[in-house]
Amino acid sequence: MAVRDVRPGLRNEEGIAAVLGILKQTFGERFQTGQSFREQHAHTTTYLPPQLPDAVVFVESTEDVKAVVAACAAHHVPIIPFGVGSSLEGQVNAPSGGISMDFSRMNRVLHVSPADLDVTVEPGITREELNRELRDTGLFFPIDPGANATIGGMTATRASGTNAVRYGTMKDNVLSLTVVTADGEEIRTARRAKKSSAGYDLTRLFVGSEGTLGIITAITLRLQGIPEKIGGGVCAFPSVEAACNAVIMTIQMGIPVARIELLDDVQIRACNAYSSLDYPEKPTLFLEFHGTEETVALQSAQFAEIAADCGGDEFRWTANAEERTKLWNARHNAYWAGRALASGLDGLSTDVCVPISRLAECVVETQADIEREGLLAPIVGHAGDGNFHVLVLFDGKDPASVAKVEAFTERLSRRALAMDGTCTGEHGIGQGKMAFLKEEMGGAVDLMRAIKRSFDPHQILNPGKIFAAAE
Amino acid sequence: MAVRDVRPGLRNEEGIAAVLGILKQTFGERFQTGQSFREQHAHTTTYLPPQLPDAVVFVESTEDVKAVVAACAAHHVPIIPFGVGSSLEGQVNAPSGGISMDFSRMNRVLHVSPADLDVTVEPGITREELNRELRDTGLFFPIDPGANATIGGMTATRASGTNAVRYGTMKDNVLSLTVVTADGEEIRTARRAKKSSAGYDLTRLFVGSEGTLGIITAITLRLQGIPEKIGGGVCAFPSVEAACNAVIMTIQMGIPVARIELLDDVQIRACNAYSSLDYPEKPTLFLEFHGTEETVALQSAQFAEIAADCGGDEFRWTANAEERTKLWNARHNAYWAGRALASGLDGLSTDVCVPISRLAECVVETQADIEREGLLAPIVGHAGDGNFHVLVLFDGKDPASVAKVEAFTERLSRRALAMDGTCTGEHGIGQGKMAFLKEEMGGAVDLMRAIKRSFDPHQILNPGKIFAAAE
C-alpha cells in the first residue's frame, strides 16, 4: 500500500525511557501510560492504523508545555499535540512513539475584545465551547469543520468547512499565535492589530503546519457579529453540472452566501433512508444566508432566479429557524447517513479541492470512477470553494477492499491535481496524503523541508507528518 | 541617526565585476549601468538616502530572471527586484550594490478565469493596467495602496490601502505565486484551487517578504465583481474619538463598508487650501459603499444613524459617480495637499496600525506629540483597520530637523507597539523600520532569520532589507 505512508519511524528507546521518568515525576496524575489512554490518543477518524504514543500528558499551562518540550528536546523524543482527535489524516498518530500532549485542560478564553471583534483562547477549547462563551457578546466564531474540534487542532490543520465560502478558512481568521518552539522559547507571531507588514507572516506559516513547526499555546481569532437573521434553503438540480453552474453564478454575482453545499444523488438517497425524508434523489444544493430580514430575503430571491435559470427545481427557503433546521436536516446528518448505507463497513472520508470552474467535471468523473469500481461512496461538497468530500465505504479487514479504496483515493487526488487543484482542501497532509504532496508542490516541498529542518533540527515536533519520518 | 539602518553593506567588488560582464553580454541593451538608470532605480518615496545598484537589467521572461539569478548566485551578488519604485521604506535601495531587476517589461496578463474569479499576471503589471485589462470581464482587482504600484511590488510588500477594510490585504488576495529561488529553481507556492491544506503556506510566506526570500515571476490573484453601484459620503465629527466610535460601531454592525477613511483637522485644512474647498476643519470620515442601488442606500442610511449617534454632523452621501468624486476630492488629493502645506520641505510618510479600540487614543496622543514638537504633520487613517499614516514635513538638509522627525517616528512606532499594534501596517520594514522589528516581534525574529538563512544562504536576495545587511 505504497500511497499511505504509515511506516513506524525509528524509536529512540533510551530517550523515551528518560522522558517518561522525568514527566512522571513532574506531572503525577496528569501523566498517563495506560493502554486505554494511549489508544484513545492515537484514535483518528480515518482508517489509518493507530500508532500509539508512549504516554499522554495533560498540560494546563504554557509552563507545562515548556516543561514537556524541555524534556523531549533534551532527549530527542517526539511530541504529538492532541485536541479531540477529530483529524482525518492520521495527524495524532505516533509513528516513532513519544508523548501525546493533551490540551483538553488548557481551554480557557483569555481575552475578548468586542470593539476589535477578536478573542484570545487557549488551544484546547472546542469551537462549540467558544461560541457558548461568546454568546452574551453578540459575536461568534464562524469556522465550522463539522466535528466539534478544538481551536488548536483547527489552527494546526488549517481547517475550514461549510461556511468558508463566506468567512474564509482558519488562515483568514487567525490574527496571532503564541507558540512554543522546539528549543522551548515562547514566541508570538503577530500583534493584535488587524493587519501588519512587519516581516514574514509567521502566523500563516504556523496555521496548517500540523504541529510540525511549534506548539501552539494561544490563538487570537477574528470574530463576527451574530447575524440578525439566518435563512436557509434547498434546491434539487437535474445534474451536477447544473448545480455547479448555479454555484458559479451565485459567486460571480457576489451574493454573500454563508454556506452553499452540494450533495450528490447517492448522498441524498442515504439521507432519505437515514432520516425518513423524501428529497428527490438528484444533486441538491443546500444554502444558508446571513444578514437582516431584508438582505436574507433579497439573497434568497436572487438565488431562486439563478436556480431557475440553471434548470433547478423550485427553491424552497425559509427564514424561520425551526423550518431551516428541518430543511437542512439531510446536510447535517450527511456523514452518519452515509455511514449507515453499509453499517458493517468502515468509512474513509477524503477531500480534494479544484478551481470552481472544474468542480462539476471533477465530481462527475469521480462518480463514474465510483460506479466503474463498484464502490459505495456518497459525495458532499463545499461547492462555493470547489472543495468536496467522498465518503468511501469499505471493509478494513479485507486487504482487497483496502487496496481498492487506496487506488481510488490515489486517482481522486491525481484527478484534482490535473485540474490545477489540491489533494486536500481542508483535511491536511498528515500521514494519509503524504505521497501526493510532492506531486502537488514539486520543488516547493524542498523549501517546506528547509523550514522544518531549521525550526526543528532534532525532529521532535510531530515527526512523520507532512513529510515521512525517515527523511 | 541610530533608528534608521541605511548603512552600506559590504560590497563584493570582484563578484559584481564578474556579474556585470556576464549580464552585459547576455542582455545587451536591456542591461544599463548609466548613472540616471541607477539613480532612478534607487529612488524611493521616503527621505531615506538613495543607495544605487551597479546596474539595471530589464527582464522580459522567467528565463531572463533565472539567467540573472544564476550569474548572481555564482558570484554572490545582490539582486534587488524593482517594480515602479513606489515603496516607502527603502525597499529598492542597494546597500551592498548589485543588480536592480526591473520588471516593467514583464507585465502581461497570463490567464483570466472569470468563472473562478481569478487572474494570473506577471509581476510588472501595475494595478491600474490590470484593471484596464479586466474591464470587459466585469471583474476588478480591488487592492488600492494609493500609488499605481506593480502587482509584484504590492505582493512583495504585503500592500493594502483604502479598501482593505472590505477586501483584505494582499495576503488575502494572492492565491498562488511562481517564484525563482536563490538557487535558480522555479517553484509554485500553491495550485489555483481557492483553498488548500497541503503543507506549509508558502504563498503567505512570500507575500510581504520584500524580495528577500525569492523572486516572484507570476502571481494569481482573486478578483471581485465590479459593484453594480458605488456610493460615497463624508461626515465631520467633533473629535477623533467620536469619529473612531462611529467606525467601531460600523464594523461591529457588520456594515460592509468598502472604504472608511479618517482625515484629521490638519489634513482637512490642507485639503481645503489645496483644492479651494470648504470642509469644516474637523476630524472627518470619508466612506464608500459597494453593492446594488438598494444595498448602497441601506448601508448609507445605517451609517447616517450611527454618525448621528456619535455626534457627527450631517452625513452627506451620493450614489452619483460625479458627485462622489467631488465629495471624495479631499481624500484623493490628501497626499499632495499635505505636501503643499510646506512646499519647500520634504515629506516622510510613515504608518502604524493598532487594534481599532485603541485607534482614537493612538491618533490623539500622536497629534499631541506633533503639537508639542512643533511639527507639521497631517494624519490620514484607514480607520476600519486601525491603520493610519502621518505625513511629517521636514527639512532633509537640516540635521536637526531630520533628528526631530526620526525621534518622532520612533515614538510613534513605540506608541503603536505599546497598544499591541504594529510598527507598520502596510509599508513594510525595508530599511526604515528595521530597528523596530525586534521590539515588535521579539524571539520570532530569530525564526524569520532562520527562514532567510535557509532560503538564501549567500544573502543575494535583496540583502539589508527587513534584517540588517551585516547580520
Question: Could you explain how this protein is built, in words?
Answer:
- The structure is a homodimer of 471-residue chains.
- The first copy, chain A, is of the alpha+beta class.
- Among the domains of chain A are: 109-225, Uridine Diphospho-n-acetylenolpyruvylglucosamine Reductase, domain 3; 229-336, Alpha-Beta Plaits (2-Layer Sandwich); 342-428, Alpha-Beta Plaits (2-Layer Sandwich).
- Chain A has helices at 13-27, 35-40, 62-75, 127-134, 151-156, 164-167, 170-173, 202-206, 240-252, 265-275, 293-309, 321-332, 334-340, 359-373, 399-418, 434-441, 444-455; strands at 31-32, 55-58, 79-82, 99-102, 109-113, 118-121, 139-140, 174-180, 186-188, 215-222, 224-225, 229-236, 257-263, 284-291, 316-318, 346-353, 379-382, 387-394.
- Chain A has a seven-stranded antiparallel sheet, with helices on both faces.
- In chain A, a hairpin with a 5-residue loop joins β8 and β9 (186-188).
- Chain A is globular, with a radius of gyration of 22 Å.
- Chain A starts with 12 loop residues before the first helix and ends in a 16-residue tail after the last helix.
- The model of chain A has no long low-confidence stretch (mean pLDDT 95).
- At the A-B interface, β9, α8, β11, α9 and α11 of A face β9, α8, β11, α9 and α11 of B.
